[in-house]
Structure formats: structure tokens, C-alpha cells
User: What shape does this take?
Amino acid sequence: MKQVAEAASAQAVAPQISRAETVGAGLSALPALNAHRAEWPQPLDEAAFYGLAGEFVRAVEPYTEADPAALLVTFLVEFASAVGGGPHVMVGATRHPARLSAVMVGRSAKARKGDSEKPPSAVIRRADPTWGACVQQGLSTGEGVIASVRDRVERPDPKTGELVVVDEGKSDKRLLALAPEFGRVLRVMGRDGN
Assistant: This one.
């Protein structure tokens, strides 16, 4: 896990250019600052906006600054979280529940990444008011994730031998872990012992 985090964070970090280099060079430094950035991707093909998720995106798109692709991905991830592990597809003898993960990438405080989370969340919370308790912000350790979906713990009472509940655990195992600054998650994952 540590190697994956290190590799991912190495890919995500822009080249280090000092303030002195950019100030001294003026506008000529801009190509160097932007050299690591890929061209903005083309919009998704209309076929991506199929079914309920596509209808949702088209309905809210005029009322938000969020990118339609980000709205679509966020809707799919949040919907999968809300329906939980019940709905699934079988591939051979392997059961695949609706579990999705995504990372939105864009400039901090300018790319409107957070705007893509609000419309789907509002609709899903209205459809299932209990789902809001399954949304966690700021999880950055494996221990935090485990605590959010932990099982009930029972131990024998030393005096009576009867089972006693030590921790009720979480009966609802659905989880949507939001990390507004994913770079922070990668840094924490890269630490020894995490």
C-alpha cells in the first residue's frame, strides 16, 4: 500500500519551481509551470450520459458550475454507496457489488470540484435520509475506514462467562468517504505504520 501511495503521489506532484525562478523570469516561467499538465480532456461522449445518471446530469447541469463528467461520476459513486452491497452483477461465479471509487482532479479552490458533490448528495439524501450518516469527511487512515464499518464486538464476561457487548459496531456498512484534498490522503498513506 505504501508503494502505491508513493507512486501515486509522485505522479500527482507538479515539478518544483521556486518562487525566485518564477518572479525573476516573469511571464516566461509560465510554460515551465504548465509543462507537466496534460491538455484538458474532450467532453464525454453523449453515450456516457445513459439512463438515470445521465438524466440526472442533464437536469442539474444548467444550475451548477460543475463539469458534467464530474457530476456523472459523483452521482454514480454516491448512488453506489447509497444502494450498498445488495445490488450486484455476477461475472462467472464472482459477485461484484456496486462499489465505486473516484478522484476528482483540478486546481485547488478554482476547479469547482466540490460543486459536483452537492447536487447528487441532495437528491440521494432526499431519497434515503439514513444515507447521510454513512458519509464521512476527512478519513485519511485505514483505521478510520475500519472504524466506520466495524463489526459488533462481544467478549465473555470474566466473572459470568456470558457474552457482553463491548462495541455495538456499525450495523449499516455503507460508506462514502470524502476527502476534499486527496493529496493529504496520499501523504498520510505514505507514512510508516499506516
User: Anything to note?
Assistant: Confidence is low (pLDDT under 50) at residues 1-30. The longest helix spans residues 68-83. The chain has eight helices and six strands.
